[in-house]
User: Fold these one by one.
Assistant:
Number 1:
Amino acid sequence: MVLGFGATSANAQVSEEVKIGFVNPQAILANMPEMRAVQQRIQNFATRKQQELLQQEQAFQAEVTEYQQKIGVISTEAQAAEEERLAQLQNDLIIAQQNAETELEQKRQELVGPLLEQIGSAINAVAERMELTYVLNTTTSTGDLVILYASEEYSSRYNITEAVMEELGMF
């Protein structure tokens, strides 16, 4: 009796229709009205970081120029100390560039993250409403296609990108 019940249960699960939807979250994100403001804030942040790095680089170049002008009149010990100081300044500049890149990525995550959460919630709502078993992303984060082909009929039924945009109030 237990074996019979297990087999019946397994058959019931196999006979259920698997419905797979797909969505392009990047297209949704790009079309969200809030994204323009987010992009502007990211651009402003990037510009500010570029200015800071440019000032630091100019200060470093001025120090190098000053060193080159006095190299012939300073002692060997002073020359070695100055070269060590310049190497440290150059290292500081490299670290500042790396930190700026990290800060820019953090800012991007901070600003785009809530929008991605909204998109995720809308995808879940649409998927539940359409009784989808799975929802696939149409592209990878690098823009490579995941779904290489979907028939026109399947695409019209299971591409939920527009439905998610409607769920977000974009139409």
Note: Residues 1-12 have pLDDT under 50 and may be disordered.
Number 2:
Amino acid sequence: MAVDSSVAPVIIKRKKVSGGDGHHGGAWKVAYADFVTAMMAFFMLMWLLNATTEKQRKGLADYFSPTIAISRVSGGGDGSLGGDSIFSENTLPRVGTGATSLRPTSQHAARGASDPGEADETGAQDEALEAVEDLLMGRGGESMISDTLMRHIVTRVTDEGLVVELFATEEAPLFDAQGAPTELLRALSGVIAGVSDMVTNPLAIEGHVGAYPIVLARDPSWEVSTRHADRFRELLLADGLSKARINRVTAHADREPAKNNPMDPRNTRLEIIFLRS
């Protein structure tokens, strides 16, 4: 039988396909991302170690520590000094557990209460001061003062005791132009005298004023701050506070402003300190 030569022959081509030769899948991308993340974390750690001080690094380490230190003072020793220098006046005030150069104490007193009875008394005193602060600021849901008066009160706890700051504003001064106490200050005095009955701590009164214009021939800031502190002392006595509880009355003039602007009315303030006994 003859073959038809007019029909084109069928040619079959077989193409070999190799899969994944170009990129071998996506697993390498995950590994590379982990590597970049680790390097970024490493360089951030190096930067933080270089940018922080030893004290800051220790604070961070203590924050993330899962245990609570038994001693309030960090140190490598467990002896009488607890790892600190023998110069307790230089070391202990810095860590917040000791005296200052203005009020030096003996070693055991500078390091805190060692007698269990003394420690209990200190703890009870701190709780009483915190109760006074909570009552003034209305933190427990109860407040003996109105919102208007509360806007003029700032409290803070220091090594010296509970500091209650009464400050003036441009709209509501504490003293009038003649230096007499305003109704606002009289109301605040009643509040301080009322909460002072909750504790037996002695009180210190400190007067501060804003700066006066430099064009004045005589700067009256010392006399005015002294008069303010003494007038508030008289108000407290009139409101029933025992004069035996007033430990000192101090004037600071304009030397310790609360605001950067020395003439800001906020700098005119009174500080009443419930001293630790």
Note: The beta strands are 153-157, 161-167, 203-208, 246-251, 269-275.
Number 3:
Amino acid sequence: MTVPETAMIKAAGLGMRMRPITETMPKALIPVGGKPIIDHAIDRLAAVGVKRIVVNIHYKSDMLAEHLARRRDVEIVLSPEEELLDSGGGIVQVLPSLGESFYVINADVFWLSGKRPALLRLAQAFDPDTMDGLLLMQRTVTAVGLNGPGDFMIDQTGLLRWREETEIAPHYFAAIQILHRRFFAGATPGKFPLRPYWTRAIEAGRLYGIVHDGEWYHLETPRGLSEVERRLATRRVER
């Protein structure tokens, strides 16, 4: 097993649905379980051996930069975006800093691992020779903060495909993944989403997933945040 030594945390979003909380702070700094949500992701990445974490910033970027400057346990590289570059463009902008394979995590998710850290399970399952991407999936029946028909279908080998319009998928993408730099082969800098590149990897038979065996929370609205805090009040939060 080779654990990626680099990661990207996507923290540039405006957090519109989290207002009024995000009127005074970026979404990544909202406290969850006693500390800013982005610190939970950084702690988990550092704990498995990640050495460098790139964080894209845009909304209230000075606040986030000031907070991240206090970290001393891992190298933090900031990637300012004057214009939001969407889910794909933001990663391509920093590919030279990310190495060959790397974690990508959205800053608005919080998770508790099962028997083994989820990031280690991803690293153990990732095969750079046969995979361009490996996504962590969460069962729709246990995901907190999301409602809908799910995202991907997974076969017995872990291969992913998009659900058909009439299908209900049993899993959501948990906003945590490992990507190989070839995933973005041919991409040019600019604003674009990840979805077409996921589709390309699916068509090539090189996009896989594993199912998270712990708890997972998506922070989208103040009401959802309150629900998460109520649930965490009765659970042990990873430090």
Note: The chain has a mean pLDDT of 89.
